[in-house]
Amino acid sequence: MTRNWLSEYETYLRVEKGFSHNSVQAYLRDLKKLAGFAGRKGIEITLMGKAEIALWLEELRAKGLSPQSAARATAAVRSFFRFLILDRAAREDPTENLRLPRSLKPLPRFLSKGDVEALLAAPDTATPRGIRDRAMLELMYATGLRVSELVGLKPSQLDLGLGILSCVGKGSKERVVPLGEEAKRWVELYLGAARAKLLGRRTSRYLFVTRLGSRMSRQSFWKTIRNYGLQAGIRGRLKPHALRHSFATHLLESGADLRSVQMMLGHSDISTTQIYTHVTRQRLKEIYRKFHPRA
User: Fold this and answer.
1) Are residues 93 and 212 in the same domain?
2) Do 33 and 145 have their domain in common?
3) CA distance linking residue 141 with residue 232, whole number of Å
4) Which residues are identified as catalytic?
5) In 206-257, which ranges are continuous DSSP H helix?
6) Neighbouring-strand partners of residue 209
7) What is the biggest distance separating any 2 CA atoms in the chain, rounded to whole angstroms?
């Protein structure tokens, strides 16, 4: 009986890796495309080699796949073959040292320090909602949290005396991240009065709440940061991950070592963090071209 590898892989992502529903579905969509490609080539997906996977990526590029989608597809395929090796269904990992075509390599968007300051100053902190939003933005920029980690925080995860927080990231891995003084100050202001005003007589086990007393959702925060981006005059549609990218990029620009940034971001593989070194190199090139008299 032929095993349904995609179904088994789906269970692996949900149960063993602890991936969210959206992440699981995104990975499966990419792997179904890979399975379709393998079928057209007349080979089993589990028997694909580096050459076949590289051809598939080239096909995606030719179809106009965005760099972000290409990066996700590559991550899905890498994860799938690691699963096959764990299950002893494959002896070698054909995605090892696999490189994306140059046109498919994404560089994460990050904000300049000036844009970050403008964004952080956008909320109206004369209101409980504005104080909450300022605290969320400050906390995200100070720690590099993912949106899901930010909205899932509970008050017990913060130690404001020590200036640290603990969060549970992808794969249910817990990490401890230091807080900056500004983030700490705004969270204290939020906890001191704004949170109680938003809750009224209600209670919540989550740190950040809405005026209805419910947990702040990922979707609501996406809309919130987009609106503040417009108020701050930031060009283009602003996404929450831009603050996470800015956190990492600004740390590296200021001399932080890659391993420390990896730990604070919660990346399991340092190669994921290394993309920010490419960002900083690109930034240096832009500065050079702009200011050097013979550039």
Assistant:
1) no
2) no
3) 16
4) 146, 170, 241, 244, 267, 276
5) 218-231, 241-253
6) 215
7) 69
| Strand 174-178 relative to strand 158-159, pairing | unpaired
Verify that 175 and 227 share a domain, yes or no. yes
Provide the whole-model pTM: 0.63
Q: Sort 158 into a burial class: Cβ within 10 Å, 0-12 / 13-18 / 19+.
A: buried
Joined tokens for residue 73: 């597809």
Q: Which residues pair with 175 in a beta bridge?
A: 167
Domain check: are 201 and 283 in the same one? yes
* Sheet containing 164-168: order of strands: 158-159, 164-168, 174-178
Can you state the angle between helices 181-189 and 128-143, rounded to 10 degrees?
150
- CA-wise closest residue to 251 among 150, 116, 149, 67: 116
Domain that holds residue 78: 5-99
CA dist 272 → 18, 80, 263, 277, 278 (Å): 19, 17, 11, 10, 11
Top-ranked range on mean pLDDT: pick from 97-101, 184-188, 277-281: 184-188
Instruction: Identify whether 107 is part of a domain.
Output: no
Taking residues 131-157, report their average pLDDT: 94
Q: Are 95 and 211 contained in the same domain?
A: no
